[in-house]
Design a protein that fits this description.
Chain B: The chain crosses the membrane at residues 20-39, 60-93, 113-136, 143-164, 184-205, 226-250, 262-281, 288-306, 312-332. The structure holds 2 protein chains of 2 kinds. Chain A is built from 20 helices and 22 strands. Chain A is of the alpha/beta class. Among the domains of chain A are: 3-114 and 193-271, 3-Layer(aba) Sandwich (Rossmann fold), CATH 3.40.50.300; 302-385 and 444-542, P-loop containing nucleotide triphosphate hydrolases (Rossmann fold, 3-Layer(aba) Sandwich), CATH 3.40.50.300. In chain A, the strands form 5 sheets. Chain A has a 6-stranded mixed β-sheet with strand order 6-7-8-3-9-10, with helices on both faces. Chain A has a 6-stranded mixed β-sheet with strand order 16-19-20-13-21-22, sandwiched between helices. In chain A, strands 2-1-4-5 form a 4-stranded antiparallel β-sheet, with no helix packed on it. In chain A, α17 links the parallel β19 and β20. The longest helix of chain A is centred in the middle third of the chain and has 16 residues, at 207-222. The relative contact order of chain A is 0.11. In chain B, the strands form 2 sheets. Chain B has a two-stranded antiparallel ribbon with strand order 1-4. A two-stranded antiparallel ribbon of chain B has the order 2-3. Classes of the chains: A alpha/beta, B mainly alpha. Chain A binds chain B through residues 1, 342, 344, 363-365, 367-369, 374, 376, 381-388, 392, 395-397, 399-400, 402-403, 407-409, 411, 428-431, 434, 438, 440, 442-443, 451, 472-473, and chain B through 2-4, 6-8, 10-11, 204-207, 209-210, 212-213, 216-217, 219-227, 283-284.
Amino acid sequence: MPKHVRAAYSISSLPAPVGQAIPFLHRKRRLMTDPKPLLKMTGIAKSFPGVKALDGVDLEVASAEIHALLGENGAGKSTLLKILAGAQSPDRGTISFDGQEVTLGTPQDSQKLGIVTIYQEFTLAPDMTIAENVFIGREPGPRFFINWPKMEAETLKLIRRIGLERSPMTLVRDLSVAEQQMVEIARALSMQSRIIIMDEPTSALSSAEVEKLFRIVRQLKSEGISIIFVTHRLEEVIEICDRLTVLRDGRNVGAGTVAETTIDGIIRLMVGREVNALYAHREAGEVGPIALAVEGLTRLRTAHDPHATELKDVTLHVRRGEILGIAGLVGAGRTEMARAIFGADPFDSGRVLIDGEPVDIRSPRDAIRRGVGLVPEDRKQQALFLAQAIRSNLSIAALDRLGRFGVFVDERKERDMVEEYRKLLNIRMASPDQAVGNLSGGNQQKVVLARWLALRPKVLIVDEPTRGIDIGAKVEVHNLLFEMAKSGIAVIAISSELPEVLAVADRIVTMREGRVTGETMRADANQEKLMTMMTLSAASRAA
Amino acid sequence: MTDAQRVTAESARFDWFGMLARFAPLIFLVALMIIFAVLEPRFMSSINLFNVMRQVSITGLLAIGMTFVILTAGIDLSIGSLLAFAGLVAAAVAKGGMQDRFTVGEGVIGWGWELAALAAIAVGICGGLLQGLAITKLKVPPFVVTLGGMSVFRGAALLFAAGGPISGFQPDFTWWGQGKIGPVPVPVIIFLVAALLAHIALRYMRYGRQVYAVGGNPEAARLSGLNVNWVICSVYVIMGFFAGLGAFVLSARLNSAEAVAGTGYELTVIASVVIGGTSLFGGAGTIFGTVIGSILIGVLLNGLVLMNVSSYIQQIIIGVIIVLAVAFDTFAKSRRRKA
């Protein structure tokens, strides 16, 4: 990688000056009414190959408090929670619980201390009863037997305590998402929890259900239980949390009481860096006519896929030669939208127009035939055949162009094609016969991009095009997107990294909870503005 | 380390284990042949070796079809039953009906071996197609569909044969199982030609790429615009084709077709494919490996027979070898991931 590229990018990894321009941080001392917090994590560090997920993070949670843990996607929240749950061990740092230093080597260690995590995707067994799920692995009864009446009675006590009006013998399958969440909470209570970690607990709930959840959370607090609350909805932080900790790029960038902060203040903390220093901009070129338009796209949740975000009346368009950025937090429905347009998932209503003509796309095959391509968000699961050669990976969608006598693959043409894209995209590989799984993430992504370029699409949707690849390869991928737009392709770029969206897009659409919440030209946008559009509902922004 | 450095480091380090894993079946086969040659002089005689190959060719034909199925991470347990049914239909066609089922010679008004072979293959293809449709349209796992098929086709065969075998065919029919071209038995030639064609299909045709893609990562294949259901259905049709062809050759070799033919073939055939290095998880494997795997099983059984090892013990050995072969595959995979 050329030296100057690295230099230009290293700014992103500089720590933000902690405490600077964060007024409420200074009042931290006064807040520590409890000199011995229930949980104290100090200097936690954790690295994965190529990524420093956490770099000396502190977290303090007092007893009977609701503590918000905030940060952008990739800020390090999940890693911190996994360490707390005993699912991963930190490289450095200490954890003390109730004044005692502890090691959380296994999930059992955490559970014994009373630290229980309720994940976004529930861990319930759908075909077992509420009672069985609450006491799974800890069924009351003598030795190998289960004392059913006792289990039922205790479950009943627990679920009534949090207001779940169901029989303990109801199958979990028959419960709503909100009720299943209450079963998870009941299970946490049955383990004598002292800290319950809730990861995005409201993302799948209706507003009435959120109110009910908040009543339960407040009740737990009054019983002396602490809650670590992870959410992307900042209004909720203001409404229910006592204190907060904000992470960015694996470091603490702020902590304080909620009463003394504002949503704007939190957004500044979460975003916190100078955009211009990060990525090269491009001059927006001439844009052509509308290549792809989506009107009123709606996709309801199905029993088949209960965790997918519902799409509600999504309308947008992209022009030839334009890069449309889609910004939104996890669960905003960006990926669901891309998959629906591409025919990978069905949708309930709305229509897709290509070059002004309504088209009926029912499968990725149809989409490809109409000139629409999708680079999916998960390269390894959804795009690559890891054990197979680079050339087969590159040519799989374009085999009909490499045909000989209709049925054979013309390997000379195929090798020429690989060579063409190897040069064009600067793919670093030993030979076209090398398994694609042996390439670095950046080069794997280039192979996926090459696959789609070889089809010469009209519209290319790229979902998280630079996830998990190093910064040098990121620049190359960005430049490639610019080249595509210049050649007249309409590009839709989905990214969780705001600096990336601001760097590549000509125009940006924001989404939240399956709806389009705003649209802006890149020239008029900045991270704070986008974060506001992404996190607040239309109603609270108007207020 | 930059990407460029990483690439050179990868290519510089020769992967001894990878090479060993790739040629393990062949190495094992050679070792086994040496052991038998030493222990039992009769083993290396050309008569015995051609005999082994003749026996291998039937299960080998089925194993070629099974390779396609397993490459898509599927399985077909119904092949033995389908083979019996197809064999009976072919026999009935060759005899011109169900009368005179034991008569040989002048009195028989048969329809000839051509039509008999076609009938066997047609039955096989229809059986495979039905199962392929059940897997892709009804979304029933291949294991269950073909377990059902195993029972259905066996029942159909018993019903069709009404209990007894059909035997005594014209010499031009039996030539396909008993004849020789030079010193080489005809079934062996059929097997090797079929293997060559299958190798070409998988290695050089667009269809082959699609089979590997669907087996390697069905979601990625779908998002690359492949018709995944069509590919999955097609491998069961190919399997059916080979079950039909195998039925024809087996009936010709035995000069008889009966409803209990092919019992237990699924075990031998799946073992051949797996020992040949095809991954039960799909997406990896070769026809070359399957040919070696089939011969390996044939040699093993033949050697054990020559050494008077009881057929019960042979079954135990085959079972253990299947499990070990899959364990080796899993082990090699986890090593690759770590590297």
